[in-house]
Amino acid sequence: MEGEDCEGTRFKKEIREITYRGKNLVDVLNMTVDEAVDFFNGNDKIVRYIELLSQVGLGYLKLGQPSNTLSGGEAQRIKLASHLTSQRERTHTLFIFDEPTTGLHFDDISKLLNCFNLLIERNNSVVIIEHNMEIIKCADYIIDLGPEAGEKGGEIVALGTPEEIAMNQNSWTGKYLSKELPVKT
C-alpha cells in the first residue's frame, strides 16, 4: 500500500519537487550508474565517485538499488570502488576477492582487471580466488589447489607464474592455461 505523502517513491512531495537539470531525486535514483555519469557530466565532484562504479563493471546498477539485492560479487566491487576513491597515499591494504568475476560479461572482466592493476599500482596487494582463465592468466603468481574439488581437493598441485603452471602436467589449471597463453619459442 502506498503512503499518501510519498506515492510509493519513499520521498515526500516536497523532496520530489526539488530538481536538478530537470530530474528529481526519484528520477536520479532510477538512473543506472552509466546514465548518471552522463547526466552529471561537468560536475567532477559527483562524477569522480560514480565513474569508479562504472569502471569496476557496475554501470548497469541503478543508483537507488537496495544493497540487499546485490550479488556477492557486486558488493565486493562496490567496496573496491569505495576504497579506490578514499585510499590515502602510501597506505598498503591486502585485498582478498572471492570469485569476483561471477556473472560478469567479458568487457566488465577487463574493467575489473584494470581496477586490480590500479590497486597494485597504489601499493596494495591483491589475492584472488578465481576459476576464470582471463583473471588467472594475468596473475603474477598462482597457487593451484586440487587435484579435484571438494573432498578430492585442497592439496597444492602447482605453484608459480602462469607460464610455469601451464607447463605442469599435473595441473588442470595448467592444461587450460596452456591453451590461453601465447607459445614461447
Question: Summary?
Answer:
With about 180 residues, the protein is an alpha+beta fold.
Describe it for me?
Strand 5 (142-146) and strand 6 (155-160) form a beta hairpin. The chain has helices at residues 13-16, 25-29, 33-39, 44-55, 72-86, 106-121, 133-136, 162-166, 172-180; strands at residues 19-20, 23-24, 94-98, 125-129, 142-146, 155-160. 42% of the residues lie in helices and 14% in strands. With 185 residues, it is an alpha+beta fold. The strands form three sheets. A two-stranded antiparallel sheet has the order 1-2.
Helix/strand structural class: alpha+beta
Largest sheet: 2 strands, antiparallel
CATH fold name of the largest domain:
Rossmann fold
Give the N-terminus to C-terminus distance in angstroms.
Answer: 69 Å
Placed side by side, the strands forming the largest sheet appear as 1-2
Unreliable runs, pLDDT <50, ≥5 residues?
none
**CATH homologous superfamily identity of the largest domain:** P-loop containing nucleotide triphosphate hydrolases
Note the run of SSEs as H and E. Answer: HEEHHHHEHEHEEHH
The CATH architecture of the largest domain can be given as: 3-Layer(aba) Sandwich
What's the pLDDT, averaged over the residues?
88
Radius of gyration: 21 Å
In total, how many domains does the architecture comprise? Answer: 2
As a percent range, the share of strand residues is 5-15%
**CATH class value of the largest domain:** Alpha Beta
Number of helices: 9
Number of strands: 6
The helix content is 40-55%
